[in-house]
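Hi F.,

I've been meaning to write this up properly since the lab meeting, where we talked about keeping a consistent format for the predictions we share between groups. The idea is simple: the sequence comes first, exactly as it goes in, then the structure tokens exactly as they come out, then a line or two of notes. No screenshots and no reformatting. I'm using this chain as the first example so we have something concrete to point to.
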Amino acid sequence: MVLITDYTGGGAVGTPAVGRLTGLQLMLGPGVMFTGRQVFDAVVIDHSPEGIPIIEFTNLISQSGNFFSGDTAPLVCAALS
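Output, unedited:
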């Protein structure tokens, strides 16, 4: 999974950003996966010690790809056991 972020407000704390997740995010078995592209509104909430903005997603703008729509809790528990 890759996160690409556009800091539309310059990257200062409290400013808006847009985050895009692409690729395989989670695979629990054949046909049970989250893969594709998701775009989120976000806000800068902090900075790392190196000065990299840390964002928090606030709203899903769009998504395309293969996103399992069932209950994932039993699948995650089975995968972890």
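Notes:
Residues 2-80 form one domain.
The chain has one domain: 2-80.

If this format works for you, I'll send the rest the same way.

G.
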